[in-house]
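Lay summary. Proteins are chains of building blocks that fold into shapes, and those shapes determine what they do. In this project we predict the shape from the chain. Here is one chain we studied, written as its sequence of building blocks.
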Amino acid sequence: MKQFLLFIHCFLFLSLFIYADDDVKAPEMNSEHKEESFPEDIKKTFNIKKRVIEFGFLNFGLGFSNSLLSAGEAFTDTMVIDTNKLKEGFRINFDAVVTPFFLDIDYHGKWGLRFSTETAVMGAVNLSGNLLSLGETSDDRLDISAAAFSEARLSGFFHAGKIKLKIKPAVYYPLVYVKPYISYTFTNTDNGASSDTVLNLGADMRVYTAVPINDFSGNAEFTASPGADINLGFEYPLSEAAGLFKKFPVLNFGIGMELFNIPLVPSVMRNYMHVSARIGGDDPVDFFGGDMDMDSFLSYNAPVYGEDEQTVFRPFKLLTWIYWKPFGEQLLSVTPAFGFAVNPLYHRPFSPEGGVTARLNVANFFITELGINHADRVWKNSLDIAFNTRAAEFGLGVSMQSQKFLKSWTAAGLGVNMGLKFGW
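And here is the predicted shape, written in a compact code that computers can read:
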């Protein structure tokens, strides 16, 4: 709660000074640079026209974050970890996105089509504070999960009156899906003269893969079935529809919403590797009695390979936003966004999403964005810069990240994205 109060204060502060685009997109720079309302004197002097057709190759984004150590604390000759901070737990998130190819057609902002291919990898480690500090608890769940998907998507937008509608169906193929069940129990019951101590740390994990990972014959076949989902969204120029924009041009604002990965057809994975291990058990143990059986206290089962159908959905997300463009459609804008995500990789799938992104677009030649966003359970403070000559556009972005808001300003995690586009 304290993190979100700090975020709200930062959002109110940034809203007075910085501006953003109306589309919330990451990691790729938004390419919808409108020019209709740009001041005429500047348009005549220098303003690069928007591309009608564009394509790109091997755009990518990478990110890694943790909740415990800043960059300064991690890269020292002697690393010191405050044991009191271990009570808050330790979290790691990583992600990677590669877009091998995309092709865009945008007919002067009236309608557009896009075809793209993409491969995304995501993973998370969440160790509870109870485990790291040996605190007493019962059935405390931990997260160690990962997934990888490839997709082909056909996107489009068009206008119905003043409403801009977006439809983005996709076919996706699961490559890896890690489904764990990890729990920690530690209790100490005082019986007067003695005490009963129960320690039970158990891990039961299945790693599903698109091909059997124990088949080294070179003839392994893909056994997973593809799935399909769709993104749906809209934007509405609220101030224009209400007549405020004509009287007060600075009141140029609108609203938008998009739903991501609405399931249509689930994918199914069939081949898995099952791994299990355990420390302790359900019965009390005597750590100092000298008769503890270590063979029963520590157990590990060799990997078991098998076949079983596992339905796989991609994480669902809903975002709503309000955009404000006080100086026309292109130069300056600010966009706060709020929403939530449901990710079945976590034992608690629900998480809040939101932030504020700011943009400055000078003549559609130099574009820069600043953002403070909470996405995929990670705070990301980002800076993106793009240079556009119409025939080509190069974009580069960096971010500082962490699961904790204040920690994200200390480079406890880093992200980078890069894109190159061509067209006319």
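What the prediction tells us: The chain has one domain: 2-423.
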